[in-house]
Amino acid sequence: MKIHVGHPEHEFIAIDVISRTHPDANDFYDGNWLNTKVLIEAGSFSGTINGQLRAEELVSFQDELTKLHESLSGSVKFSTMEEWLSFEMTGDGKGHFSCTGKIADEVGYGNVLNFQIYLDQTFIPEILNGLGRVVKAFPVLGTAQKAG
Known about the structure:
The protein is α+β, with helices and mostly antiparallel strands and 148 residues long. The chain has one domain: Transcriptional Co-activator pc4, Chain A. 24% of the residues lie in helices and 45% in strands. The chain has helices at residues 28-31, 55-71, 124-137; strands spanning 2-6, 12-20, 33-42, 45-54, 73-79, 85-92, 96-104, 112-120. The protein has a 4-stranded antiparallel sheet. A 4-stranded antiparallel sheet has the order 5-6-7-8, with helices on one face. A hairpin with a 7-residue loop joins strand 7 (96-104) and strand 8. The longest helix is centred in the middle third of the chain and has 17 residues, at 55-71. It is globular. 26% of the residues are buried.
């Protein structure tokens, strides 16, 4: 189940959500880890990275990207808890967007690729459709306990 950010065939990040990391867990903390494979093509660089992200990170990104799509102005950030993948999409108010970020091949160390991808508002609906499919297939489980 893919979330595709960018052009269909070049200059993109494709986040393929494969499964829950802990399929038997239904609590917020363990149940929301998702196994992913990310394919990136930016300029002359391309690669595939396996990693984990959390279901609530995708929901938050979906909510913020929906607002950005409506206004076309401002920015939205996506970042994994372990910071192996992060990017920011910024709209100029005229339908043009830049997506600037970084992806690492290991959590906490290793090689890092900094990238920038340009797209326009016509790509946003497909990103939101992909997010919608993934969020529906892998909903957030449980609720976070408040410290106190």
